[in-house]
Amino acid sequence: MLADPAAPARLSGLAGRYDALFCDVWGVIRDGDSLIAPAIDALVRFREAGGLVCLVSNSPRRAGSLERLLRSMGAPDGVWDAIVTSGDATHALLSRFAPGPAYKLGPSFDDPIYEGTGLAFSPLDAARVISCTGLVDYETETPDDYAALLAEAARLQLPMVCANPDIVVQGPGGKLLYCAGALAREYAALGGETLYAGKPHPPIYALARARLESLSGRTLAQDRILAVGDGVITDLAGANNEGVDCLFITGGINSGAIDWPDGRGPRWQAPDLVW
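Below the sequence we write its predicted structure tokens.
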């Protein structure tokens, strides 16, 4: 799959090939500070042309919480048909461990993910599972701050449910902030068992497809779905695993710094999502 670096892809040039978009959020339609107006416009225009849009995010928030956040940032009507998140897919996974006890690792603003799971929480040494939604203070901490905790959890042989497989995300001013995926990566390196439901893993894509097919009343053909994202190990790998084309946004967390071997890259690539 060759990309032409001299002519970055625009969604308007691809729209006729696809019936639906699986579109990432952070790094694509919003940066660390605000919504990205040209990207919002591109999704609106795709829907006006008859396409379906599902925002597919590795946020540990449930879909309703993410929608409220985007609305508070100024997102207008008509941008998306549905939203699915790693939080949605992980909620079902966490429910399998109820009633626990579980060790909660992450900031308090992620707590809505636990509503309805039936989980009870405990100290690490009494837990049967770790639920990781992220670093407690993601603006100042790094995975190194959790080295002792992760080592002890590995010694106890606790499985870790990772609610956000992203390693980093764009924060204010473009600063890259560590996500739950960074802790899960360190845990796996220690020999710990890690469980995921978000991108690039199948559950979140199955949920996205089901939501759009339910809304539209039609079956979506694999070759008529386009994934849009800025993460190599999440969006790009997930699209490849699912067998769908990918519009890879190089201006997100990678900021155009990828050196594709022999000029090979995703099916389509662009610095930003534009119509």
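The chain has two domains: 11-87+200-270, 88-196.
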